[in-house]
Amino acid sequence: MIPDPSVCDLxxxxxxxxxxxxxxxxxxxxxxxxxxxxxxxxxxxxxVTVDAEGARRAAEVCDAAPAxxxxxxxxxxxxxxxxxxxxxxxxxxxxxxxxxVPAEDDLVVARLRRAGAIILGKTNTPEFGFGAVCTNKLCxxxxxxxxxxxxxxxxxxxxxxxxxxxxVPLAHGTDFGGSVRTPASFCDLASIRPTPxxxxxxxxxxxxxxxxxxxxxxxxxxxxxxxxxVCGGGDAxxxxxxxxxxxxxxxxxxxxxxxxxxxxxxxxxxxVRARFASACEALAGVGDLVPSSPDCGGASETFRTLRAxxxxxxxxxxxxTRRDELTPTVIWNIEAGAKLSAEDYLNAERRRTVIYRSFRxxxxxxxxxxxxxxxxxxxxxxxxxxxxxxxxxxxxxxxxLAVTFIVSLVxxxxxxxxxxxxxxxLPFGIQIIAPPGCESRLFAFGRLIENELGFSHRxxxxx
Length: 463
Hints:
14% strand; globular; single chain
């Protein structure tokens, strides 16, 4: 079988239809993508593990089935290596877990398999997902396909590069403070961070924790909607999954769009502000724009506190027992939470509530809120952390994520899309934010601007 490389440029929705009606076999689609990985990943380092034989066996099962197994029947996907895959190494980006092979799939993986998806492998991430550059002691740096000298973004950079470079049409990611949205912005992709609980995490130790979510990266809005349709849905073991109310009202002919370059508090580079202003000029063609933002005063301090507390609680024991084997970034993240008190934590939750209610108030008079999807453009892989923007020092290594982590703080769903760009400009994306439960409205609006304004993926020039 000689793989047809053009298959790798097709969307997941297109591939699913072609395989379901017999125009393509799952095996030939899988082989084409495995060939693309073999050709391009030597340079880009998007994958920690490629399961070629497992993917071929799964494709043969799909091709032998009397009817499609589900909406993603025979379609190749990749899973971020923070998420458990049964029988397939899951390292969490850490040398401590280089030989770890889970016995069970995470629920999101199980739902993808039930929908007929073929898992090609696990994508690279910084250790435990903490890092601005997608690298660790096992793999990386994962290089940006638009300029391999630059970062792909953390921490779903492996998934972003796998999709942008045509190694898979669709990839899973996770997002704590911007880990799906930043790589999407850097790699010219669409992404979805859904309402927390929309994709349940029944094994999450802190059941009411809404800072981290599963998400997806793709080259089109339709592919994101397909992925969420098969992975969303309730689960009794996830308390967040029970309270989501679907809001599928149609999008207004000219929606009201609040726009903010920085939420009033986030450090954002001059180049990003200029690119965002151009994106807003285009958006004015499809909606009524109003410069406006929720009151986000204290948001950065609030997120720092909550994030540090969660990380110290999850990984503090590793710092005590295996410090020498951890990366400096992980050590810093754990130590940041070591001295927090209960009062510190509850004061942060109090402020978080105020910010959430301010977001809610804004959406009583607007349909969408639009902001940049990253505060800076991609930087060289040799620079491990963003410690200054336009010459102004940042207080901590995570402050460059404020433009995304503010949205994580309140748990509103976010669709990101690539903004239009010149031939020689680096990729840059926008966040489109809606109230909890409004993913269908986000997808509808995203399709509109994808089609009418050209806010869509442009393939990198790769050999």
